[in-house]
Amino acid sequence: MENKALKEQLMRSEKAINMGILSGRIAHDVKNPLAVILQSVYLMETSFSETNEETKEIADMMRTALNKITEIMNKMSSCSRLLQFEKSQENICSIIDDSFSIANGMIDAKGIDIEKLYPSEKIILNVDKTAFMHLFLNLISNSCDAINSGGKIKVKVCASGGFCLVEFEDSGIGVPKDKLSDIFTPSYAVDPSSKAMGFGLIAIDRIVEKHAGTIAIESIPEKGTKLIINIPLPK
Predict the structure, then answer these.
(1) Cys staple from 117: which of 75, 93, 142, 156, with CB 3.0 to 4.6 Å?
(2) Are residues 104 and 72 in the same domain?
(3) Do 70 and 121 fall into the same domain?
(4) 22-28, long-range: CB within 8 Å, 24+ apart, which pairs?
């Protein structure tokens, strides 16, 4: 029950993030052509409406409809802006530890071995703690789904070149090479018949992006997967 509740919570969070991402992209893509259409309607009104009452009526109807679409787009943009992060100074290794503690049930159920390689000194980042908990919980959930009993998850954290580097590696089923470019798209699945659904990866990508970081993936089918996350260190 604990594992099921955790996954349901992650799914709800991911849906909210995905909705915000989708809303923002749609609003951005529609606004520019919409502005062109509105300008064209304005030109039609000023050029022809004085001599043609029917044209004026059609132009009025078009402008009313376009203004309604503009209002909807503005609301969608507002939905996207709700996904703002509240950043604070946080120990990244503590966030990782807390995430593993929460997911302990699903880890124990698979008999998965956890290896953590942390630096001797704390690495403090300016991040949204809740968002990064969500990030690592999703990675842990993915790994548990992809690993057969008795597998391993390895996490390495270090500071290098002004960045905090987090390597999250598992011994799961891996990702086929031709699927790697799709890994951060919505509803990605390594194999629709498998349990390894790439759960929450678009949300992870969004979180890293909003913290001015980068994320990359390396994977070998039947060997495992490694995600490499870089987050800027505070200046």
Answers:
(1) 156
(2) no
(3) no
(4) 22/186, 23/76, 23/77, 23/79, 23/80, 24/76, 24/77, 24/79, 24/80, 24/81, 26/73, 26/76, 27/73, 27/74, 27/76, 27/77, 27/80, 28/77
Q: Residues for the chain: how many in total? A: 235
Surface-to-core class of residue 199, CB atoms within 10 Å of its CB (0-12 exposed, 13-18 middle, 19+ buried): buried
Give the residue from 21, 48, 81 where a domain finishes. Answer: 81
Q: Verify that 114 and 170 share a domain, yes or no.
A: yes
pLDDT in tens, the chain (235 residues): 455 665 565 555 566 566 666 666 676 677 778 777 877 777 777 776 566 777 777 777 887 887 777 777 766 665 554 456 789 999 999 999 999 998 888 898 889 999 999 999 999 999 998 889 888 988 998 898 889 888 999 999 999 999 999 999 999 998 888 877 777 765 554 444 444 444 457 778 888 988 999 999 999 998 999 999 999 999 8
Helix (H, G, I), strand (E, B) or coil at 22: helix
Quote the number of domains for the chain: 2
Tell me the pTM.
0.68
DSSP secondary structure string, 171-184?
-SS---GGGGGGTT
